[in-house]
Request: fold
Amino acid sequence: MTLRTLLAQAIDYAGLFPPAQLDMPGAVAEYESYLASSDAWALGRFVVSAARLRELANVAGETTANPLGGPHAERQLTVVLGADLRADVERLRAFSDQAGSENWWGGVDAVELRASTPEAIADAMRVVPDGVERYVEIPVAGDPTLLVRAIADAGAFAKVRTGGTTADAFPASDHVVQFLATCLREEVPFKATAGLHHPLRGEYPLTYDPGSACGRMYGFLNVFLATAFLAAGLDAVDVRRMLDESDPNAVTFSRTEVAWRNHRLSVDHLAQSRRFLTSFGSCSFREPIDDLTALGLLSA
Reply:
């Protein structure tokens, strides 16, 4: 189906991170329940910081009734590395050794880190093992071309932060479009993270706290469809309009295509765009799925 082509295994579950910030047992239990659900087709990796790998190992080792794994076991974990890359890489290796010897985990197949200069990207890639997908989060306020090229030279993937828990954490639409266009031009796959809890752009609470301030968030459909339309040749002005689209009636899915206002893309175009936009991180899995259900899109 069209929507499933666009969003298959797209939601990397980051329940350990703000604003959800679940404890480890809670996040692991949630992920297990999603793996066993009818919505598992949309579930991607479990996101964990390197500093919490030992904690994760302890919780996973105690999980016997329904051990983590299942249909996505071979692409289970993405590990977020911090400022001390060497220390975190050692934590990663220790965890992988334990997981392999005890055979209860699908293994780490992706890591994520930050770098803001081509030199920092090159230095990081000399430390991070190359047997996994390596995502480098870069700033997007300026021209990202040199950074994206450095990522390409390293055989790595890019990462864009599309929001956060404060209104000023959301980048300008022009900057997001420029990032998307640069990755497509340089043929660098990428992922997005933060603030993508809802399908379409709109004003939403920034946290789960009662009385939370609201901010104008991007929607994950905005980002995925903007990428697909851009890859199919839509001009940057219209792509920005797609990225800012907030009207659910403006986007319709059929069995063979998706339509946004006067523009259409086939299922094949959507599949091709997923070569570039691999996934998005969200501290909630149910919120995106429930919103898609409310819009009547899960049958598309």
Notes: The CA atoms of residues 181 and 230 lie 7 Å apart. The domain at 2-294 is CATH 3.20.20.70 (TIM Barrel). Residues 64-75 have pLDDT under 50 and may be disordered. The radius of gyration is 19 Å.
